[in-house]
């Protein structure tokens, strides 16, 4: 039986592939450019694109379990629905979908609302799936490392509600474990949703204090201005994406990104170890600089 991993050359997808290989799974990786795919021996690399229906049909032929990860792009919602419909036609009944926490709350944020639409399709079309809902990725803060280390400011609009940030490595390992659980089950398992969160819920001030400790010099929190945040992002991403990220930041300020009761304990039990902390991420980032 074969597990197909989409988004396989990305930060999460590539790690999912490696976790599955280490656990002896038969893995097929869907990539746009096979020449850029570097995986362990035994991974079956197939070229394809979510909007190239024939390539999707080829990639999904003979697949038993699907990991669906869609990049944040303007037509993300369409790509996900196309992939799920092709999977359904291919007889794939075991799915793990990477959504986002509070997709049903951040309804004005394009990439959140799109993922919630995909969740609705999964539920209403009776797919047997695990919907993973990760909070903010710790590794996103690598984009602002220079602002932190060079200017002494943590500029992300986190606010004072708090974000339950999670390490990408934990996301990938949990995804692999869920794929294997579904793949190896004697029968299709019921729909489930899992919030993916880190061990701590941190405010902007909390995060700045962590960087201050790790760097041994003062780092201030300066992330309340979402308009300035958008303008900064436009320097290295498309304007539509920078605006999407601004809207997300505004919801950070008003709603936060909070775990539910029992989330941390559930994930700790699933991994069999503690979740990685933001402090550990910051220390690793500084050590590797």
Detailed description of the structure:
It is a single chain. Helices cover 45% and strands 14% of the residues. The protein has 289 residues and is an alpha/beta fold. The strands form two sheets. Strands 3-2-1-4-5-6-8 form a seven-stranded parallel sheet, with helices on both faces. Strand 4, helix 3 and strand 5 form a beta-alpha-beta unit. Helix 1 packs across helix 6, helix 2 crosses helix 3 (76-89) and helix 3 packs parallel to helix 4 (110-124). It is globular and about 55 Å long. The termini are far apart. The mean pLDDT is 96.
In summary, what is this structure?
By secondary structure, this protein is an alpha/beta fold. Helices cover 45% and strands 14% of the residues.
Please specify the SSE layout and strand pairing.
Blueprint: E1 2-5, H1 11-22, E2 26-31, E3 44-47, H2 53-60, E4 63-68, H3 76-89, E5 94-98, H4 110-124, E6 128-134, H5 145-151, E7 153-154, H6 168-184, E8 192-196, H7 204-215, E9 220-221, H8 226-233, H9 239-255, H10 263-271, H11 278-287
Parallel strand pairs: 1-2, 1-4, 2-3, 4-5, 5-6, 6-8, 7-9
Helix pairs in contact: 1-6, 2-3, 3-4, 7-11, 8-9
């Amino acid at each position: 039986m074969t597990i197909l991993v989409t988004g396989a050359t990305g930060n999460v997808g590539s790690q999912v592939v490696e976790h599955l290989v280490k656990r002896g799974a038969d893995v097929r990786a869907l990539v746009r450019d096979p020449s850029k795919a570097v995986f362990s021996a035994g991974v079956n690399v197939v070229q394809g694109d979510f909007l190239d229906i024939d390539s999707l049909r080829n990639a999904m032929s003979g697949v038993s379990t699907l990991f669906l990860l869609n990049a944040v792009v303007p037509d993300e919602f369409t790509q996900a629905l196309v992939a799920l419909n092709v999977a359904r036609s291919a007889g794939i009944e075991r799915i793990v979908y990477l959504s986002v926490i509070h997709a049903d709350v951040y309804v004005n944020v394009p990439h959140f609302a799109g993922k919630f639409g995909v969740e609705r399709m999964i539920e209403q079309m009776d797919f047997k799936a695990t919907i993973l809902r990760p909070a903010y990725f710790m590794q996103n803060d690598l984009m602002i490392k220079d602002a932190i280390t060079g200017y002494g400011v943590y500029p992300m609009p986190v606010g004072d509600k708090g974000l339950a940030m999670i390490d990408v490595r934990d996301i990938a390992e949990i995804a692999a474990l869920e794929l294997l659980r579904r793949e190896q089950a004697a029968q299709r398992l019921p729909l489930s949703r899992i919030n993916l969160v880190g061990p701590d819920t941190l405010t902007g001030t909390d995060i700045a204090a962590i960087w201050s400790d790790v760097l041994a010099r003062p780092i201030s929190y300066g992330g309340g201005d979402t308009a300035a945040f958008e303008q900064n992002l436009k320097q290295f991403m498309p304007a539509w994406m920078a605006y999407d990220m601004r809207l997300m930041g505004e919801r950070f300020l008003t709603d936060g990104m909070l775990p539910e009761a029992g989330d941390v304990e559930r994930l700790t039990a699933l991994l069999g170890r503690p979740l990685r902390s933001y402090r550990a991420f910051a220390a690793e980032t500084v050590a590797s600089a």
